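Thread amino acids onto this structure.
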């Protein structure tokens, strides 16, 4: 019974995430197509808070948690460098573009104008920290970064990834959540307000909607 309850909660969380994502994209399309007019009055319902039930909460850190519910909730809080769509195609997320310099070296440029929930700007060093953190912790994402030998910072938005071995598909491993030194903040559309053993409360990241709308029109553009 407990297992069925947990599965049900995970399904609900995924459904909520999909609904929020569809709603977000629908709103962006409407804003682009609808002319500005004083005669137009649009009624909208904006989700400002999510209350999520969760069983056996160990930690909200998606790198350390063994809870599948936490992994699903983390997608609302944290963004990743790339995402994978339903057709198994790699999609840009935090990354603006990536270039292959050699068999084992890739140049990565992040999107500009992205901020953490606390207002700090998202930079290359944040990616370096997240990757090194995952390499030093035995979590579910450690295998994703096992082939990364080093991260060389070029500037605030550009860095090089050096691999230990050639892997033409290694970008598919860059779909893990980018966490901050403050483990409870991310760059996603929702931010953590409160958490206990029974409930997690997420509130809308108004900064995401205000600052990211123009730079994220191609957020899910295939590679």
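Threaded sequence (223 positions):
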């Amino acid at each position: 019974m407990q297992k069925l309850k947990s599965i049900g909660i995970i399904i609900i969380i995924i459904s909520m995430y999909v609904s929020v994502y569809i709603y977000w994209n629908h709103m962006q399309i409407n804003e682009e197509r609808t002319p500005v007019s004083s005669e137009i009055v649009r009624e909208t319902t904006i989700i400002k808070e999510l209350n999520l039930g969760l069983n056996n909460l160990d930690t909200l850190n998606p790198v350390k948690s063994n809870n599948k519910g936490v992994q699903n909730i983390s997608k609302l809080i944290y963004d990743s460098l790339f995402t994978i769509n339903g057709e198994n195609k790699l999609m840009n997320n935090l990354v603006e573009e990536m270039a292959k310099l050699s068999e084992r070296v890739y140049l990565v440029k992040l999107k500009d104008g992205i901020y953490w929930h606390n207002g700090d700007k998202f930079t290359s060093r944040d990616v370096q920290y997240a990757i090194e953190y995952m390499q030093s912790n035995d979590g579910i994402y450690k295998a994703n970064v096992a082939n990364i030998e080093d991260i060389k910072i070029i500037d605030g938005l550009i860095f090089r990834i050096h691999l230990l071995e050639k892997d033409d598909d290694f970008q598919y491993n860059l779909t893990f959540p980018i966490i901050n030194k403050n483990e409870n903040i991310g760059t996603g559309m929702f931010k953590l307000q409160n958490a206990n053993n029974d409930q997690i409360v997420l509130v809308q990241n108004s900064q995401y909607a205000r600052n990211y709308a123009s730079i994220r029109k191609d957020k899910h553009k295939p590679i």
